[in-house]
Amino acid sequence: MGIVLSSFSTSLDGFIADPSGDVGPLFEWYSNGDVEVKPAGYDITFRMTEASARYWHETVTDREGAFVCGRGIFDYTRGWGGVPPGGVPTFVVTHRPPPADWPPIPEAPFTFVGDLPTAMELARAAAGDRDIGVAGPDLVQQCLNAGYIDEVRIDLVPVLLREGIRYFDNLEDRVFLEDPRIVEGKRVTHLRYRVRR
C-alpha cells in the first residue's frame, strides 16, 4: 500500500507563496540546472541539477496513483488545463460546483467531492498500492489534523518571504516528525519527513 504525502516548495520562514499566491523564487530550482526532467502529462521541461533531478525521479515519477487537492489550488492552477499532476485521478474537495466551462478536455480525470473523508476513500481506491499526493495548504492542514498524512516533503528554498501563504498555519495539535532524509540541491534542500505515529 502506498503512502499519503504532501509536498511544497517552502521559504525558510515557512511560506509557500506571497500574499497574492505567486511562488516567485520558490520554484527557481526547477530551472537552475542542466538535467532535463519532463513531468508526466505536461508539455514542459524542467532543467534541474543532477541532485534535484534524481530526487524528483525517486519521489515523484510513477509513484503517485491519485491526487487530492483543495478548491483554492484547483482554481489557482485552473485545474491544470484538465491534466492534473502525473495525469492521475484527481479528487477536488469543495462545496462549490465545478466551473461552468469544466472540463476543458473530455478525458479530464477530476471528481469533485464535498468532504475530505470521501475524497480520501475514493483516492485510496483509485491509487491501489501507489501513493496519494495531497496539495493545497488548507487541505494539507486538514489532512494532518485528521491523521491522513504519512510523509511531509519540503523543498526548502533559502529565501525569507516575510509574509504570504504559510504551509502550516491551522494545525489543531503538535505533529511530530521523524528525522528527515535530506538531498542538497542548488538553491534548494529537499527534505522528507515521515509523520511519527
From TrEMBL:
GO biological process, one term: riboflavin biosynthetic process
Gene Ontology molecular function, alphabetical: 5-amino-6-(5-phosphoribosylamino)uracil reductase activity
UniProt-listed SUPFAM superfamilies: Dihydrofolate reductase-like
InterPro entries for the chain: DHFR-like_dom_sf, RibDG_C
Top-level taxon in the UniProt lineage: Bacteria
A Pfam family: RibD_C
Domain spans labelled Bacterial bifunctional deaminase-reductase C-terminal: 4-174
Protein name as annotated: Bacterial bifunctional deaminase-reductase C-terminal domain-containing protein
